[in-house]
Specification:
The structure is a homotrimer of 226-residue chains.
Chain A: H1 6-30, H2 35-57, H3 68-83, H4 85-88, H5 92-116, H6 121-142, H7 148-151, H8 156-171, H9 177-196
Helix pairs in contact in A: 1-2, 1-3, 1-5, 2-3, 2-5, 2-6, 5-6, 5-8, 5-9, 6-8, 8-9
Chain lengths: 226, 226, 226
Amino acid sequence: MIGEPPLLLVLDLIGTFVFGLNGALTAVRAARLDVVGVVTLGMTTALGGGIIRDVLIGFIPPATFRDWRYFALAFAGALIAFALSRGLARLEIPITVFDAIGLSVFAVLGASTAMRHSLGIAPSILLGVVTAVGGGTLRDVLIRQIPTVLRSELYAIPALVAAAITVAAIHFHVYGVPAALGAVAACFVIRMLGVRFGLNLPGPPGVEPDFGGEDSQPPQGTRDSQ
Amino acid sequence: MIGEPPLLLVLDLIGTFVFGLNGALTAVRAARLDVVGVVTLGMTTALGGGIIRDVLIGFIPPATFRDWRYFALAFAGALIAFALSRGLARLEIPITVFDAIGLSVFAVLGASTAMRHSLGIAPSILLGVVTAVGGGTLRDVLIRQIPTVLRSELYAIPALVAAAITVAAIHFHVYGVPAALGAVAACFVIRMLGVRFGLNLPGPPGVEPDFGGEDSQPPQGTRDSQ
Amino acid sequence: MIGEPPLLLVLDLIGTFVFGLNGALTAVRAARLDVVGVVTLGMTTALGGGIIRDVLIGFIPPATFRDWRYFALAFAGALIAFALSRGLARLEIPITVFDAIGLSVFAVLGASTAMRHSLGIAPSILLGVVTAVGGGTLRDVLIRQIPTVLRSELYAIPALVAAAITVAAIHFHVYGVPAALGAVAACFVIRMLGVRFGLNLPGPPGVEPDFGGEDSQPPQGTRDSQ
């Protein structure tokens, strides 16, 4: 990540690791998969958002294929989650916290990467959100869950807030470690408040959706994929 | 869209808007989603096909990220559909008509964009079809429906016809507003005839497919995702 | 495929053809689709992995859009499978063998293509695996099955072995027809042994996964998507 302060590279690597952990734990809970399946899903969660971002901004091959540390940390996170899944799999709290950390860090770094590649303000914010939610969405599609971003308590909104703060800070030339950490913290806090208080955004006014099909999944389902 | 007649840019923007409407309405009907989920699916439907096309032809960042109007119209269409979903959600007709308009416009513009980027004849036709069906396919995957392109009455075929007319017109140097509108009209008419008369292409000869699994979805299901 | 020995180009074309056959047969068995759906899925299976690989290494437009033979062979394979599906659809053996051939060939050629485009050792191995499993994974997502790579007997591992042999041979300047065929054979044999003896990698230690949801699919299910 050229031009990014070192602390943010560290955050990026931490985000990769915790998304690897989180993706693998989600996979263990949602489907009976072998070690290859679990590690594949952990790595998809950790690396997917960044790969989509890099392809869309034209930074090809993506950073994941240039810097072995992303690959190594995603793999390590997924493998650790697999090994410890007996202890971790039923714990909601660490999965949710890991996910919120990754979401926050990736939203900020996705937006700043897009700005550094000369994209406009709105596209950079959008790419921040895509970076943050992309990996988890790929994972959910592969294990046939409705993606978290579509059905959960406040999930895309905190990422959007973090990306917007980042883009504003870069635009006004005040981006640096404090601004980045502030954006990360804002996303993390909003996300955790959403989880804690079960906040949901409003559904469509007055519509009673049709739940006849087997492929409708009410969002109040107790299994949660984050 | 450099080099495209102004009318076609207008058509492209109209197609983006109606796909935003259509994708959001489909989302409202298929799953109980909040406003972020509905708008996300509307924008995915409206922008997904063009983004896939631009990545495959090497026009990166994709047009969506360069021209804010695509983004704005997709967002507006999705938000309007969300707000009006009480009135619109049970109406089959507008969803189907919006979808057919988007399908027709995107097939023509996808094929002409590919030709302008020096792709060959067959790849340009294929990219026209991918542009037309790509966004809706992403949407269907995210809400766990078998994509319309795989199971519905004539859906890919009209897009193929429109893309082929477009490519032929460009190849023989007669492409312009009349040819483009003719191709759009051909796709729209074939698609609407397919819907009206429930036309389906033949299934495999003599095979009784296995419907034992929960993930098989017979195409005669009454819920229709367009 | 510049710089690849002619035999390997032949193998690549064979792999494309058998993946077209295989993808279409899988589609016929899994869902009641019309001819467009079956051919679309066959072509997605045959071409998807290579397109993803080419986008990620920056070879855009992808080889599929430059060399009409890939397109033609994928189409032919899918159409033949559709026409003969009455006879072929219940036969496990040819589907599995075709799939193992495609998997082996694509893993080798994916890895060698990545090396030729100056990617590092680990990314090249990863891209070999992605090339091999990408098309089938797209197909499984479109027909709403948990992808084979996540749930089946040894599937990603043989592709990983073939890609690693290929990358090692290129790295030590001994790559050529014998090395490539050796890598293909290694993958094919490991895969077929996995199928024959139902070998599975270990699941997570001591976890009893939750199968309450309709979207969990135990890997011991009799329907197999390869």
